[in-house]
Write the structure tokens for this entry.
Amino acid sequence: MSLQLGGEPYSEYVKYMRLGKKEKEELPILDDYIEKNHVTTLGEVSLGLVQIPMEQIAGTKNAGRGVSFSRSFYPVMSEKTEFAQKWMSLYKAHIEEGIREPIKAYEFMNKYYIEEGNKRVSVLKCVGAVSIPGMVTRILPARTGEKENRVYYEFIDFYRLSGLNDLCFSEVGSYAKLQQLVGKRPDERWNDSDRMNFHSLQSRFKAIYEGKEKNHPGKTADDALLAFLKVYDYAELLNLSISELKTKILKSREELKLREGSVPELSMSPEEKVGKKINILARLLPMSASKLNIAFIHEKTAETSAWTYAHELGRLHLQKAFSDEIHTSCYDGAAEENVGQIIEKSIADGNNLIFTTSPPLLKGSLKAAIEHPEVKILNCSLNTSHKYIRTYYARMYEAKFLMGAIAGAMTENDKVGYLADYPIYGMTANINAFALGAKMVNPRAKIYLEWTTLKGHDPFETFREHGISYISGQDMITPKLASRYFGLYWDGGDYPVNLAMPVWHWGKFYEQMIRKLMKGAWKEDEISDETRGLNYWWGMSAGAIEVICSKHLPIGTARLIELLKNTISSGDFNPFAGVLYSQEGVVQKEMERAFSPEEIMTMDWLAENVIGYIPAMEELVEQAKPVVSTQGLGEKK
């Protein structure tokens, strides 16, 4: 028996029919898409009864079912048709009792295509339902290596662990990152409580975010949620009220526009002006408005860490260079867990510029910068994009190229040892530059790569087994751990003989950075690209990196190194220019081309004359994991 014309079901049908007829695009048909695009599939997998997110329903399984609907599943048939009568009856039944009968659907590339139950989907979409139950079959595409395909297979792995099917990320690595940020091991499964807690946060976040922000091309609300979780701890967010959550989202809105894994804009020298300027940070006071109080926050002490010692030398140089114009102070013992409290103390002490000097302090630095827009904060790390802080580093690969050239000229059996610590971005460029420098003066040179942070491993045992006496060790030493095993040294006699040492000259780096900031460069350097941050990456041309040769180096070799140093500093020579080979084959085949700074910074391969590999996270000692978690190659791939 048909419904009478008029009444709510009728008026609703007419309303949505008119909307459907305005849509020009047709409803996608999965069978047609697979056939027309010659998609290779690997078979079907039954997922059973699944709660299907309405926003991920993209079309129908076959052509016969799709002619009655528009792209958005609005009905398009005349209100006088039998189809319209059935739609209105279903609408009335839903209003009175609710639709509970599962539909039948196919999932492909994280989208759902309906085989049975199209009218049920249409009614529920029109009334704004969030999901619908369905018996789902997954159609597996062949692996292609393309970005979208890789993201989808990462979703499949994540779905097996979590059972969550309503997460849509656009970048490779996002699902594994979320697993880490919610406190789960890479292979740990989620329980019902885990899913309920996450869905609660996800729904609250989306309601606030989508109500305040415009859609950014190629970026999903879940991408923004992932960026949010990189700033604030997951456990903390679960306990926030709606108003508290809204406040944090609004404060960090610029950070949420960033793309996962995006490469930052690079400032390659102190003189360089970066990109188009915008006034996002106009709220910040000019550096010259008052005396500059600068805090340096370190993980360790200068007495126990060569890295901290180098930055402390930089701080002392800075204080001497500016005398009464600035005041500097240092805070030791920072870690991921307490860096927020230390930054708060440094701000309470009157500091308006803060340098946090190691990558594990990045998250706490970012969180503090969002909460304190009146303070400028910079973190010493590479290849990280953030809007509320700047990052900085030095191009050590330039010095390592020179060190490699020395090693290649000096080795007597064509073997050189190389000690590396953390498998992070920047480190691979250092290793490869060293290998290329050695190969330039000695085509037979082989670089034996060893990692000091591997569990239960003695790298020097490997060197002894291969008869290696020329070794590139740690860059410098700490005052309390005096040793001659640093820089490039020969270890073939009663005691090591030092040949050359690369130097992180943080004093010159900080001095030029402060001069830039005093001239207003913080605002001038702001970039217009909403999806990228800014990284200061200076090298020999800025005096931030140096190589010191010892008296034990032959005069001819020392002259060669001086010549190479001058050509690199002037920009006339790029160590990563011309034909380049990795352990797997050709990386670059054009003789006239040189790697861009971005390609050098994100390098994740080893040169062909390197004997060794890049270790995975699980192979490393515990104390190495915070650094690698922040900047490890596996995190960005």
Summary: The longest helix spans residues 192-212. The chain is about 40% helix and 20% strand. Confidence is low (pLDDT under 50) at residues 1-6, 276-289. The two ends are 60 Å apart (CA to CA).
